[in-house]
Amino acid sequence: MLEKAQFEIPGRGIFEKWLYNGQFPGPEIRAKEGERLRVAIKNNLPEGTTVHWHGIPLQNAMDGVPDITQPAIPPGGGFIYEFNAAPAGSYMYHSHVGLQQDRGLVGPLVVGEKNAHIAYDREYTLTLTDFLAGAPAPLGRMKAAGSATMDMLAPPYIALLINGRPPEAPSVFQVKSGERVRLRLINPSGTTIYRFAIGGHPLTITHTDGRPVEPFRVDALRFGPGERYDVLVEARNPGAWPIAASPDNDLPAARAVLQYIDANPAMPRADAMPEGLTGGRLLQLEDLRGLDVPEVRKPNRIFNFVLAGGMLKLGGMMNPGSSPPMLIQEWTMNGQAYPNAEPLEIHRGEAVRIRLENQSAMPHPMHLHGHFYRVGNVSKDTTIVWAYSKKRVELDLVADNPGAWLFHCHNLYHMDGGMMRVVRYV
Ligand code: C2O
Ligand code: CU
Question: I need a surface site. Which of 37, 147, 253, 294 has the fewest CB within 10 A?
Fold first, then answer.
């Protein structure tokens, strides 16, 4: 059920959010690989909504994109999503209507493997979110009450949370000495890219966006909105250690605690930070080798995109001094801002390559619905194209899932500002 609900952040107050079953993040949905998943939605919100199952290559009609795969579920209405939970992996779900995602409509989705390529004794899901106290609004310059104007260049998040808890009242994840612990790191944040590390423990990367990779050890990883990483942590260093994720904005790092229950340790100091946040080995995507990654075929079709944009001035130029110019954000792919943008037309069975170059000052986590693509040596569905990247990022996919799918930046406000295209099978 989707409803308006009060959400309390310990020590910070009570906030009016739009939530799945009154929880933030929404309830973890778990299925076994290959199971049929049925999720019944009842919309008690004042607006229409949809639920997108981010990352799962499901049937197009279940993808939850308003006006493209279904009409929005109206207030008071319902919808049943039904699809095969496959392949196994760490996924997420969220609203795909406007800026609703930043009202609190996000949650983790986990499809467990029949046979995992790694062994572990316990697992936890860590969902990282940036949190708004009020309702989300498009970025730009706005007329506030009276004649004052306000520049809103970034959403006014008040905190970064792990599983709904703030740094000063963190979630505690318990382990026993000798255990191997699998962590599923899920990022349904509106805009925040994190650098993640754990004090005293290296991270062994085992999955990118749910897809298995040869285990690879690092001290830290960066991940953006829409991305997921699974990591293995070997509990061989008894104590209570900070788990932290420092953001690419000014907010204090998101925090949690890794606590050995057989060691009776004192909690880490509030300012204790994992060494991996500032030093050590940081994961580079090129380091990883995916398992079962399809060979890249010679592409039948290539799309080249330049990602660009930022704040755009409108009006106020004609009579300087009268009213300040309006600022709106516009984010483009080859100069076009959705919905005034051409679809990418592809044919079933084709090998498709999408090349991305980022000429803007912001990184763009680019997400494709309904497919995994190959990037470097791994499979993913969301990849950060870093600001002013000289090197093009190449995404290779096989067109094997007919329908109309979105390809967009997973920074919610960049998507809202136009950085989105439809990929259509013709
Ligand atoms: Cu999480 Cu259109 O995506
Ligand atoms: Cu972007």
Answer: 147
CA of 151 to the centre of ligand 2 (A): 19
- Reading phi first (left if > 0) and then psi (alpha if -120 to 50, else beta), residue 137 is in beta
Terminal Cα distance for the chain, rounded: 36
Q: Is the peptide bond before 188 cis (omega within 30 degrees of 0)?
A: no
Q: Are residues 64 and 12 in the same domain?
A: yes
For residue 421, what are the domain limits?
301-425
Q: Name the pLDDT band for 318 (thresholds 50, 70, 90).
A: low
Protein residue with least CA distance to atom 3, ligand 1: 54
> Looking at ligand 1, which residue's alpha carbon is closest to its atom 1?
54
State which amino acid sits at residue 189.
Answer: S
Per-residue confidence band for 292, with pLDDT thresholds at 50, 70 and 90: confident
Tell which of 238, 256, 287 closes a domain: 287
Chain mean position to CA 234: 26
User: In this structure, which amino acid lies at residue 201?
Assistant: H
Does one domain contain both 96 and 157?
Answer: no
The predicted structure's pLDDT at residue 143: 61
